[in-house]
Amino acid sequence: MTFDETAIDWLAKLLSDAAIAEIMPRFRRLDEGDIRRKTSAADLVTEADVSAERLITVRLRERYPQAMIVGEEACSDDPALLQGLGEADLAFVIDPVDGTFNFASGVPLFGVMLGVVVKGETVAGIIHDPIGKDWLIGARGAGSHIRHAHGTLEKVHVAESAPISQMTGAVSWQYMPEPERSRLARNQTKSLSQFGYRCAAHEYRLLASGHAHFVVYNKLMPWDHLAGVLIHAEAGGYAARFDGSAYRPSHVGGGLLVAPDEASWRELRRELWAA
Question: What is the pTM of this model?
Answer without folding.
Answer: 0.95
